[in-house]
Amino acid sequence: MARIFLLTSGENPTLPFSEVKSILEAEGYGYQVLGELPQVLRIESNLESVASIRSRSSMTRVCGLELFDCEAKLNEIIGNVEGVDMGQIVKEGESFAVRVKRPRRSALEIGRWKLEQKIGGAIFTKIRNLRVDLKTPQKTFVGILIGDRFIFGLRVAEIKPKSFVERGPRKRVFFHPTAMPAKLARCMVNLAQPKRGELVLDPFCGTGSFLVEAGLIGCRVLGFDADRRMIEGTMRNLCYYGVEPEGLALADARSMPAADSSIDSVVTDPPYGISATTLGARTADLVEGFLSNIIDKIKKGRRVCIAAPMNIGIGELGERLGFKHLESHFVYVHRRLTREIAVLRRD
User: Fold this and answer.
1) What is the pLDDT of residues 76-107, one digit of tens each?
2) Which of 285, 187, 171 minimizes the C-alpha distance to 179?
3) Cα–Cα distance between 145 and 7 in angstroms, integer?
4) Are the C-beta atoms of 284 and 272 separated by less than 8 Å?
5) In the chain, what are the helix, strand and coil shares in percent, each to the nearest 5?
6) Which one of 165, 228, 334, 347 has the largest count of C-beta atoms within 10 Å of its C-beta?
């Protein structure tokens, strides 16, 4: 077991941490939460778990092997650096760099560049023939100033958001204004905790955002939609990203053609608003009909991750229909819409 820190994106206060925990649980890694700070999650887990986080996460930016955690005071930071056995981390002749991150503009009294230089100097004096390389170092040390704390360690993985930007709604071959951004779609897939090779269903598949993201992490995917144009558009997008579906069908989510206990995970964003088709039904009624229909089709103990307008109260609705409401997260979209992203489990 290793102490690991994760620097997450700052776009939502709760989703990034839940995404990491869901990935670890889906991949079968035990973990213990050591601390939660704004944008920083500290855990104890198998270091191999970082590979799963790197390949699946949309809202994690840096994964590091934690070497120490201390107060954000210059003398204490340097003292802790000097106390680390660097011979276990970096070898003679290797190149290294030090990067200090300051999310939320924490500890402004400490100069970031000055701190990088002082930490680098302390490391440099401990190992012979070290080389500083700011462009392509063999080892990168990362320090995070957050609140009144400083977390320091060796970077194990860096996750760049570029690939999610490249799969943005307007980058796809088929576009619709209601399409879910790739980053949030991937996060919701992770919250549903599917494993590679398992079947993920989106009963309101729209442009295929969730199916693309589930397919890219190795899941089998199945999609339904009541609008033929959306089914055709989903197929075009899946083909573009190299995802072959188990099936796509024109169907009402309230009466889906799926066998009982055949679905491993459900991820969906039912239609709402003037740009989406609801077959003349109120969104709340549509969601209730879908949840009533899906509860027997999803396997026991497995999850539904669903987005809906906050005023629907999707968590409470799920409980009333027989699901266990595990968690909810809230995402502001615009003045008239805040999404509730709820995770439900069939017990």
Assistant:
1) 999 999 999 999 999 999 999 999 999 988 87
2) 171
3) 11
4) no
5) 30, 30, 35
6) 165
